């Protein structure tokens, strides 16, 4: 019996990806462990390996196709003795997001023991049965729209719309369930959305759930609404890639659903700078004079913040709906700027690592992040983040929490400042730190307490060893 090869989930929150490259073609024989394709997400490019042997009977998704849904069938594997006639009738390839077709997108295959399924945390696949479409690890991607072309349920019945119509409606901020369809069986098609955008389309009463959604925070102006404000030819349109889309979605979600509050204080860093200079000066050097390591101020910040969360463990928390998770480890994510967006790789158990270990790990993670070579388990998880813009001369800023983290520490540049002490005017080096807290998990007094512990460690770095 032919085996469906499906789009793997490279992370628990992945909903779609790009089939960047095929390493096989129709008719090729493959064995377990052979690399058959490369899948690209907003975060990384991963190789997909075969778990069964056989012959590639049909490739359904063309190389370079974007927006391929998790669990959508991308190819069919024939077993010994089978030929192409066993495949049955299937489309030549899945529609691309740019396609103008009004045909329904193919439904994702149901999981079975022969379905290729990504084993998270590695770059291979396993024969573990695929998760149901409504699995929370899929972000419920299959609960409403296999390929976005299937019907979605509402309180008033089933709403049918083509993939293109759904995409146009989303871009225009239109609730597709309120548009009267003119296609077969009332299906909403491209023309209906264009008419609705022009204010000429027929509409139907929205169900209570849709009305509640309409009352929720808006996602902003649509592309067409923005472009209409500017003279044509005075700008360049650059489509958002997967990373930028995910960054935008997560930060919008964070600001709309997470009740932020902010705590700011100044840390005197004279002792830290002296300790850093002394440690770096003692680093062994190679024959060409290159030191074995060079600690940064951020390494001290990561270490101090990780220890602070251990000393105030109730601040090492994340909100989980009807519960709060209090984490036993200080897994601290560090914001890394990359072209087109950012990564937040996680330094696990940072409180137990030396400054040198933290320094080497952060440099390694940052380098691989910029090359999109991180594995999912390296940028997922953690309970908190550190964002440092001091190297850009930024004195003070408030960072947006990265869900589901409970906090994020924003650190500005160190600078000389004049300050009073015992009636005398002195000069010292200071940096400003701002803690953003999720008020559902970390209250004001608790946030102030953990930030105070952090300040004490930064101002007396020798206490990190106590």
Q: Any idea what the shape is?
A: globular
Largest sheet: 7 strands, mixed
Number of strands: 23
- Give the integer mean of the pLDDT values: 80
Class computed from helices, strands and strand pairing:
alpha+beta
Estimated radius of gyration: 26 Å
Give the CA-CA distance, first to last residue: 64 Å
Uncertain residue segments: 92-157, 205-217
Give helix % range. 10-25%
What share of residues are in beta strands? 15-25%
What is the helix tally?
10
Enzyme class: transferase
Protein name: Acetyltransferase component of pyruvate dehydrogenase complex
Organism: Devosia rhizoryzae
GO molecular function, one term: dihydrolipoyllysine-residue acetyltransferase activity
Architecture overview:
The protein is built from 10 helices and 23 strands. The chain is an alpha+beta fold. β17 and β18 form a beta hairpin. α1 packs parallel to α2, α7 packs across α8 and α7 packs across α10. It is globular and about 85 Å long. Residues 92-157 and 205-217 have low confidence and may be disordered. Its cofactor is (R)-lipoate. Residues 2-78 form the Lipoyl-binding domain. It catalyses: N(6)-[(R)-dihydrolipoyl]-L-lysyl-[protein] + acetyl-CoA = N(6)-[(R)-S(8)-acetyldihydrolipoyl]-L-lysyl-[protein] + CoA. InterPro entries: 2-oxoA_DH_lipoyl-BS, 2-oxoacid_DH_actylTfrase, Biotin_lipoyl, CAT-like_dom_sf, E2/Pdx1, E3-bd_dom_sf, LAT1, PSBD.
């Amino acid at each position: 019996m032919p085996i469906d090869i499906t789009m793997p989930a490279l992370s628990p929150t992945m909903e779609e990806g790009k089939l960047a490259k095929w390493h096989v073609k129709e008719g090729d024989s493959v064995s377990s462990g052979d690399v058959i394709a490369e899948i690209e997400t907003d975060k990384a490019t991963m190789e997909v390996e075969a778990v069964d042997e056989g012959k590639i009977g049909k490739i359904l998704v063309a190389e370079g196709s974007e927006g391929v849904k998790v669990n959508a069938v991308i190819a069919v594997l024939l077993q010994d003795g089978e030929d192409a006639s066993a495949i049955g009738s299937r489309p030549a390839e899945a529609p691309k997001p740019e396609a103008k077709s009004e045909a329904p997108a193919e439904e994702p295959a149901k999981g079975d023991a022969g379905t290729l399924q990504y084993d998270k945390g590695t770059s291979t696949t396993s024969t573990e049965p695929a998760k149901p479409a409504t699995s929370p690890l899929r972000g419920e991607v299959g609960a409403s729209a296999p390929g976005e072309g299937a019907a979605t349920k509402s309180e008033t019945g089933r709403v049918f719309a083509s993939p293109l119509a759904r995409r146009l409606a989303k871009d225009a901020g239109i609730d597709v369930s309120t548009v009267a369809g003119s296609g077969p069986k009332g299906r909403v098609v491209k023309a209906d959305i264009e008419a609705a955008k022009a204010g000429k389309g027929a509409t139907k009463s929205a169900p209570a759930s849709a009305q509640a959604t309409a009352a929720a925070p808006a996602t902003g102006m649509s592309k067409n609404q923005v472009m209409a404000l500017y003279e044509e030819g005075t700008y360049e349109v650059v489509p958002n890639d997967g990373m930028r889309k995910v960054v935008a979605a997560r930060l919008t979600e964070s600001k709309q659903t997470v009740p932020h509050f902010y705590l700011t204080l100044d840390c005197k860093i004279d002792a830290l700078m002296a300790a850093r200079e002394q440690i770096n000066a003692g680093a062994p050097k190679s024959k060409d004079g290159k030191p074995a390591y060079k600690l940064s101020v951020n390494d001290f910040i990561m270490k101090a913040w990780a220890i602070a969360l251990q000393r105030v463990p109730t601040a090492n928390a994340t909100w989980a709906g009807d519960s709060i998770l209090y984490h036993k480890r200080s897994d601290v994510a560090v914001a890394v700027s990359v072209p087109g967006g950012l990564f937040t790789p996680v330094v696990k158990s940072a409180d137990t690592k030396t400054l040198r270990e933290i320094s080497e790990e952060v440099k390694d993670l940052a380098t691989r992040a910029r090359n999109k070579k991180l594995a999912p388990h390296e940028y997922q998880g953690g309970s908190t983040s550190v964002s440092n813009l001091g190297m850009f001369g930024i004195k003070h800023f408030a960072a947006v929490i990265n869900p589901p983290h409970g906090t994020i520490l924003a650190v500005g540049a160190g600078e000389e400042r004049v300050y009073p002490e015992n009636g005398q005017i002195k000069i010292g080096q200071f940096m400003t730190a701002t803690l953003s807290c999720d008020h559902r998990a970390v209250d004001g007094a608790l946030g102030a307490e953990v930030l105070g512990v952090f300040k004490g460690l930064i101002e007396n770095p020798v206490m990190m060893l106590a």
